[in-house]
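Subject: design request, 211 residues
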């Protein structure tokens, strides 16, 4: 059984569906190129009614200090997710600037990428273990691509972590069984088109992950 983060939420009915289904983390994307992007003002409305116990995660890609301040001036966030090329030093700066826990995403495509999880494990509060985006990809995440989960078998890091990348209602139970992930993160796998979430898929995913 794993807890769930539903990422890339941009409509109130999908926030409500994720909360009702039992998701413990909700992700909001502040990266304009993404089909899931929300503005600071939209995020203010989307995050306002989220109950205590459900964490609101703001996803940023190499954000400037100004962007972080602008979003936090409007929207109530509980965690900052960094999904770009941020260094460990930048992770520490963002933590100090925002006063919030920071989750650093690390993309894996093979064993050579694993040491990054140790490196970031000092500065970050949480780790998001994701698939490395393919060369030339438009987005650094949210591509619906899985990596070889066997890379994670028997491994431990300094921080709590989540598994992401190509998870769906059909494969999430096997991913949790193989990796022991305590939390799973999904975006494309609960969409019927890029950026368009689906209530039935959200429910099916949470049920499969928590079963
Ligand atoms: O979702 C996006 O559009 C996005 C844009 C820029 C950086 C990251 C992005 N998404 C990351 C995620 O949604 C998840 O943390 C994770 O990568 C899972 O995505 P998916 O494989 O689509 O389930």
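Subject: RE: design request

Done. Sequence follows.
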């Amino acid at each position: 059984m794993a807890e769930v983060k539903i990422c890339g939420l941009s409509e109130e009915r999908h926030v409500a569906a994720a909360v009702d289904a039992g998701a413990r983390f909700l992700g909001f994307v502040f990266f304009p190129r993404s089909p899931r992007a929300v503005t600071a003002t939209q995020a203010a409305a989307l995050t306002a009614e989220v109950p205590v116990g459900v964490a609101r995660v703001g996803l940023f890609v190499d954000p400037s200090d100004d962007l972080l301040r602008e979003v936090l001036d409007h929207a109530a966030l509980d965690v900052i997710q960094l999904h770009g090329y941020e260094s460990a030093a930048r992770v520490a700066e963002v933590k100090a600037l925002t006063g919030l826990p920071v989750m650093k995403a690390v993309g894996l495509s093979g064993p050579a990428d694993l040491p990054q999880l140790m490196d970031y494990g000092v500065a970050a509060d949480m780790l998001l273990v994701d698939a490395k985006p393919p060369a030339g990809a438009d987005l650094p995440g949210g591509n619906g691509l899985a990596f070889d989960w066997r890379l994670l078998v028997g491994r431990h890091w300094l921080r709590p972590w989540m598994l992401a990348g190509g998870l769906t209602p059909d494969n999430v139970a096997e991913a949790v069984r193989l990796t022991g992930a305590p939390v799973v993160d999904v975006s494309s796998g609960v969409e019927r088109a890029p950026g368009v979430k689906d209530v039935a898929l959200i429910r099916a995913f949470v049920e499969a992950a928590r079963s």
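Residues 7-8, 29, 31, 34, 36, 59, 61, 83, 128, 130, 139-145, 164-167, 185-189 surround LARABZUK (CB under 6 Å).
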